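Quick one - first record:
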Amino acid sequence: MKSTFRGMLVMGLFSTILTLVGCDRVATGELQAGQSTVADLKLKMGEPASVNREGDKEIWEYPLGPEGVRTYMMTINAQGTVEKIDQVLVDANFKRIVPGMTITEVRRILGRNSKEQRFGMTPNELTHKYKFNANNEDIYFDVTYNAEGRVKEVGYDTFSLQRGSSR
């Protein structure tokens, strides 16, 4: 009985790991810039969370998981080929977020946020939290908007993850 339970536990853990790894078709090399097509994207990643036009190109957004640490922006050219693949939750993009930007401008750079927070002392402000991985550690990058929907401040939050906050 004990070995059966242990076997089931090991199989469950193994299948969970495979599922998590299998979700990121970019990291596994199944999707590649210059080779993959729109059909490949839809087959392996499903429909994008959003699509934005930039000239004759489209930018497809693929956030991984509700709390995934990767969000991909796929640039699709007029021929329907994936031209570029960017994992956008990186420090270089966080540095591009500056006071005065709108929520839409930030979303175009970072994609959709993982979480939202409002605080009782500042109810007209909204903080969008973006979970990402740096040096094998999950961290939140926070973007706080003022009442007009413009970036007030940005920063990193490791405290919420350390205490297991679900806010």
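second record:
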Amino acid sequence: MTVYIAKVRDHSGKVLNEKVEAASPEQARSILINRYVAVGKITKSSFNFDLSQLEMALSKVKVKDKAVFSRQFSVMTNAGVAIVRALGILADQAPNPKLKRALLGISAEVQQGNNLSSSMSKYPECFDDLYVSMVEAGEVGGVLDEVLDRLSKLLENIAKLQNQIKSAMTYPVTVGIFAVIAFLGMTIFLIPVFAGIFDQLGAELPALTKFMLWLSSMLRSWRAIIPIVVFMGLSFAFRQYYKTPIGRLQIDAFFLKMPLFGDLNEKSAVARFCRVFGTLTSSGVPVLQCFDIVCSIIGNQVIVNAVQAAKKDVQQGGMISLAIQKEKVFPPLAIQMISIGEETGELDAMMEKVADFYEDEVEQAVKALTSIIEPLMMVGIAVMVGTILLSMYLPMFSIFDQLG
């Protein structure tokens, strides 16, 4: 994208110099003509970098941003507002700079005669395959406003599910960070004070005290960088291994079996699968294409492999429920409800019900997990602080015994 500067006149009659990013001067004019009364001379900017470009590069379009856009776009199209005008209005009020640029570009593409879905596909960082496929189905069926409404509900549910899982991690992570800070503070600043007292008294130190003094000395020297380097190296190695097919499969399999969090991961993946699959089929997207799209949003390679294997069975004429059952990944209840949906011809509605059920299960699991983690974290912090204090006071007891 190139930055262009154009002389424009707004609705109040003021003449302004407006910056716009576009692939060509013609596209820049198409973008600006929807926002201003008149557009004059357009020139290429001699200095293309500014702070807004950096902000755009660092920004990310979140699920919530797309949900809000979809809801507003649906209302405007349902009210009869032209797509180009609606996109221009929504671009003006979009808080996310990356989404704003995408909407302006899409508006220009549509004004030139391109389909909305094909225009959106040129901005994959904002609109993924799921979004583009549903918009395409809405265009073909002439029910774009209904599809956009379904999309907004789908994205709102996905955002809600993500927030529930994040909330399960927020408390332990926050408490863990403060615990580490407290531990480092006591080890680096408090223990040396006691070390000086022990040296003056010449007391015989127990093993625990010797270890804590050694740890304090290490953390106050250049050797403290060694565990940091080791941690960073292990993190890098873990990320690189996770990028490999076998590594991703093994780690995702562990995530499904790990204590406390495994059940939560499985239920959230099932909820995402059913919610997205049901929304896609109700919008008119072909079933086989639904499988491909769902695989990109599940987030667990074990379940992705199961869905891909199920797709092959369905491709050969099998039922979705039987195909999924073979892989032994989905819970029996979900499989039975999907089977009933296929038998009654209400697969999309049944998928939505399964998604509702497992989203409620995730919410309850998050509450239960939080109630378990809270006391465990408190006990862990108490043990940590108690160990440090005990290591400092044990030599005092021996000194008092000698004095007595």
